UniProtKB/TrEMBL annotation:
<dbReference type="InterPro" id="IPR021312">
    <property type="entry name" value="DUF2889"/>
</dbReference>
<protein>
    <submittedName>
        <fullName>DUF2889 domain-containing protein</fullName>
    </submittedName>
</protein>
<dbReference type="Pfam" id="PF11136">
    <property type="entry name" value="DUF2889"/>
</dbReference>
C-alpha cells in the first residue's frame, strides 16, 4: 500500500543510506555502507558555502565480518564533510568495531565505543543498520531460511520466526508458511 498523496511541497534535503554486501573469496564478507546528505540549494556552512546538489556528507564505512557475524576489520572514510580537516580525521576510531558481534548487543556496544565525541554522529548512525543488513545478506547464502521448502525435516526452527511482527510464532503468517513451527493459541 503506498503512502497517502502528499500536500504541495518542495524537496530541500535528501539523505541516502545504502549497504552493499560482498562475499569474499576468503570466506569473509564485506558490508560497504554509505550515508550522504544533499541539499537542493546553496547553504552557508561555518566552513563556507556548499553548493546545492553537492553532498554535505558523503561518508563510507566498511566492516568485514565472519560467518558468525563478528567484525574482523573495519574502516571509515569521509569524502565530503561540513568541516574539512576536522570531521574527516575520525576514520581510525572505527577500528573499535573490531571484535563486536552484529548479533549480540551490537548497538549497545557501538554506543559505548563511538557515541558523541568518540566518533562521528553520522558514521555511528550508519553503523546501526549493519546487523539487519548482514542478516539480509546472509539469508539463504550463509544460513538457510527454508522459504518455500515443503518438507522441512530440520530440527532447528527457521531463523526468521519471532524476529518481526509478521513472523510471530503464534501468528497467521507462520501458520501459513511454516505450519510445523506455528504455536497454537489457546482459545478461552
Amino acid at each position: 500500500m503506498p503512502l497517502s498523496p502528499p500536500v504541495p511541497r518542495q524537496l530541500r534535503h535528501t539523505r541516502a543510506i545504502t549497504v552493499e554486501a560482498y562475499a569474499r573469496d576468503d570466506g569473509l564478507w564485506d558490508l560497504d555502507a554509505r550515508i550522504s546528505d544533499v541539499k537542493v540549494r546553496d547553504i552557508q556552512l561555518a566552513s563556507g558555502v556548499r553548493e546545492g546538489g553537492k553532498p554535505v556528507h558523503n561518508l563510507k564505512l566498511r566492516v568485514t565480518i565472519d560467518r558468525e557475524m563478528t567484525i574482523v576489520d573495519a574502516e571509515a572514510a569521509s569524502d565530503s564533510v561540513p568541516y574539512p580537516g576536522f570531521c574527516d580525521t575520525i576514520g581510525p576510531a572505527y577500528k573499535k568495531l573490531i571484535g563486536l558481534s552484529l548479533m549480540k548487543h551490537f548497538r549497545l556496544h557501538l554506543k559505548d565505543r563511538l557515541s558523541g565525541v568518540l566518533g562521528c554522529t553520522h558514521l555511528t548512525e550508519l553503523a546501526q543498520v549493519l546487523p539487519t543488513a548482514a542478516i539480509q545478506a546472509y539469508a539463504n547464502d550463509v544460513f538457510q531460511t527454508r522459504d518455500g521448502v515443503d518438507e522441512d525435516d530440520s530440527p532447528d526452527r527457521p531463523f526468521q520466526i519471532d524476529r518481526c511482527h509478521a513472523l510471530r510464532a503464534d501468528g497467521p503468517a507462520v501458520a501459513t508458511f511454516y505450519p510445523r513451527w506455528a504455536l497454537k493459541v489457546a482459545s478461552g
